[in-house]
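User: structure tokens for this one?
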Amino acid sequence: MNEQVRELLITAKDYLQRLQAGVSNIVDFLRQGEEGKALEQIPLIIEGLKWLCEALDGTKNYHSIDIVQLNSALEEINVALENTDYILLGDVLEYELLPVLEEWFSIL
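Assistant:
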């Protein structure tokens, strides 16, 4: 593994930790009825997931993470947002997205 790949994987693992905290904060906002605050954070999480997936895809020869795992959660997040179903949104973030991020963190 070259130095560039190693650095990218370290950065990805650090970023995963921050992403998990961000998703947890959104879940907390939703549980407290502060949908506005939660919705302000969603674009940041989506952008973070995009970067993370690009980093993981570019280093796929060095880990066993399958980024396709996110598809189901992302589809459900989209449905929840389209229907303004914030209970579903919180559940998907907490019970589908966070476990994937935690698994990825343990792999890296």
